[in-house]
Amino acid sequence: MHPDRPMWTPPPDRSPEQPRQVRRILKLFKPYTGRLMIVGVLVGASSLVSVATPFLLKETLDVAIPQGRTGLLSLLALGMILSAVVTSVFGVLQTLISTTVGQRVMHDLRTAVYGRLQRMSLAFFTRTRTGEVQSRIANDIGGMQATVTSTATSLVSNLTSVVATVVAMVALDWRLTVVSLLLLPLFVWISRRVGNERKRIATQRQKQMAAMAATVTESLSVSGILLGRTMGRADSLTKSFEGESESLVDLEVKSNMAGRWRMAVITIVMAAMPAVIYWTAGIALHLGGSSISIGTLVAFVSLQQGLFRPTVSLLSTGVQIQTSLALFQRIFEYLDLPIDITESDDPVRLDQVKGEIRFEGVEFHYDDKSGPILEGIDITVPPGGSLAVVGPTGSGKSTLSYLVPRLYDVTGGRVTLDGVDVRDLDFDTLARAVGVVSQETYLFHASVADNLRFAKPDATDEELQAAAKAAQIHEHIASLPDGYDTIVGERGHRFSGGEKQRLAIARTILRDPPVLILDEATSALDTRTEHAVQEAIDALSANRTTLTIAHRLSTVRGAAQIIVLDSGRAVERGTHEELLELGGRYAALVRRDAQLERIA
Questions:
Q1: What CATH code would you report for 16-172+316-338?
Q2: From 414's CA, which of 3, 59, 365, 375 has a CA 20 to 30 Å away?
Q3: Which residues have CB under 8 Å from 325's CB, separation 6+?
Q4: For this UniProt entry, which segments traverse the membrane (predicted)?
């Protein structure tokens, strides 16, 4: 990573206007409006049926039992049983539909975030910890599961139940209803305070989880384990992780305990309300007020108790929504990331690519604060030609090569492929046209065959073997017990550096790009391995336009054109012989290499 390049960090914690954010969340559910309407109907029907039970109970106590009407008693009892059955069936159906909708919304979110990140430039990933990215997709979206899958249904269900129950309570006795609802505004205020507190803690908790995930990803990878063991830092890393985990423990406890005492007060008051109702009815009768029948009183208390569950649930849902807003905000931060590398509105598609590459007045810098990495680069590589780029570390060699496949975009001038600005080409054409083999070979934790087929999913076994033979790696693969079904291990650590490089070359041969970029593909190899890999590279480079970023100058002597970069500028250019005769920087680099080889 370039030393002047700033690390990417999430924007400061500026909570957007909640109404705007809520509207954005609701838009996520828009594709599933039909299913949600069905849920609404089921919820409404279930609420109405459940409210009918206290009225059936009132008739049972005031009419059927006192008057000995056994037929009516049987009907009322049957009605109460049917009410329970219908409510349960409707509840199962609404849970099934709402959970399905919620999971689809989470799928949409995960896919949207992953797709957004796939479109980000390479610069974003060089500034962002891998664990941070993984945490957004896994922890943040996973943390919203309960909210997304059940909150909407819970909200509608409980709201409908509360409204229906209050209406029924008023129908039974408006005076007792007033007494029951006197403290409701206080409960709402308490729940909002608790929600804001949990939202703040949730934001801190998710940041800590992201930091811990990043630590795990970096230190428990194969490379991280090797570094930690060889540097004797295993205990230090464990203590560091212990500290981060301890911080998470404190935040989890705070999150779970935030507002618990205040919510407990609400629970106690709601549970005590039946006693208040009985006391109110008794005092009213003692003071000469109108009497309330036993059936009405029991039915009212039943409704009031029925009001307790959805009311507390509504308040808890409000708290949960406040907490989830923090998670949604973190997800929206990623969805709102500006995309640096975009496809043209009217992209050009090339069916046949000849492979001419031109750099015309190319300039590049990472941001306005950093200085130029490349400046005034003008180069032409004819179809099938070869260009080697050499120079000291940090001179801009790799950055120059990354401009061709648009891993970065130029900030001045342009790069063309067959006369077309690469920024005007459609992504598919560019991906088919340009192949990259870099110093750091990446292999998936999968079989050799699967890694090769990543370049060409429909490749036959014969094509895999032909590519491997061209890359000088077939015999080694065939000697393995499982052959092409051998699992390469995490990042290919079951293979040596040279073997991984040859697998990467075989993968690129399968893709068969007309333009090839070799980014210091042999710089980390010993001389013997380099020779084998170089043979594979020579086979790969045949009849292709080749741009080679070289550390060892022995690999570029046959290039048709060599340019020397220094501080982002092309200071020399020519063939190997011409540059040696010039006696400038290239000649100095060749002498340095010769001295290093003698020492080795």
A1: 1.20.1560.10
A2: 3
A3: 15, 18, 21, 22, 199
A4: 36-57, 69-97, 162-190, 261-279
Distances from the Cα of 559 to the Cα of 227, 436, 531, angstroms: 37, 18, 17
Q: Where does the pLDDT of residue 360 fall: very low under 50, low under 70, confident under 90, or very high at 90 and above?
A: very high
Residue 171 neighbours by CB distance under 10 Å: 12
Give the C-alpha separation, 221 to 284, whole Å: 74
- Split at pLDDT 50, 70, 90, the class of 231 is low
Amino acid at 472: Q
Per CATH, the architecture of 357-598 is what? 3-Layer(aba) Sandwich (3.40)
> Whose CA is closest to 535, among 594, 475, 490, 455?
475
Domain ranges across the chain = 16-172+316-338, 357-598
Burial (CB count <10 Å: 0-12, 13-18, 19+), residue 574 = middle
- CA 433 to centroid of chain Cα atoms: 29
Q: Are 80 and 56 in contact (CB under 8 A)?
A: yes
Q: Where are the beta strands (DSSP E) in 317-471?
A: 357-364, 374-381, 386-390, 412-417, 420-421, 434-438
- Count of alpha carbons within 13 angstroms of residue 119, beta-carbon side: 17
Percent of residues in the chain assigned helix, strand, coil, to nearest 5 = 65, 10, 25
Q: In what order do the strands lie in the sheet with 545-549?
A: 434-438, 515-519, 545-549, 386-390, 561-566, 569-574
CA–CA dist 376, 411 (Å, integer)? 11
Residue whose entry in the numeric block shows the structure tokens 């870099």:
438
Helix and strand numbers, DSSP H then E, in the chain? 23, 10
The CA distance from 214 to 301, in Å, is: 54
Distance (Å, whole) CA 521 – CA 502: 10
Burial of 221 (0-12, 13-18, 19+ CB in 10 A): middle
**Both tokens assigned to 332:** 């929206």
Residue pair 379/569 in contact by the 8 Å Cβ criterion = no
Q: What sign results for the dihedral spanned by CA atoms 580, 584, 589, 595?
A: positive
Q: Can you give the pTM of this predicted structure?
A: 0.65
Which tens digit of pLDDT belongs to each residue from 314-336? 666 666 676 677 778 878 888 88
H-helix or E-strand spanning residue 519: strand 515-519
What residues form DSSP beta bridges with 516?
435, 546
239, 241, 253, 255 from 212: Cα distances, Å: 12, 7, 17, 17
Distance CA 454, CA 437 (A): 14
| Nearest alpha-carbon partner for 259 in 311, 315, 309, 310 | 315
In angstroms, how far is the first alpha carbon of the chain from the final one? 29
CA-to-CA distance for 223 and 228, rounded, in angstroms?
A: 9
Give CA–CA dist 582/572, Å, rounded.
9
Total residues belonging to the chain: 600
pLDDT over 60 (residue 3)? no
Q: Which amino acid is at 534?
A: Q
What's the confidence (pLDDT) of residue 363? 93
Distance of alpha carbon 154 from alpha carbon 99, whole angstroms = 11
Q: What is the pLDDT of residues 544-590, one digit of tens each?
A: 898 988 777 777 888 889 999 988 899 999 988 988 888 888 888 88
Other CB atoms within a 10 A radius of the CB of residue 22 amount to 13
Per-residue tokens: 383: 């179809």
Pairing of strands 420-421, 412-417: antiparallel
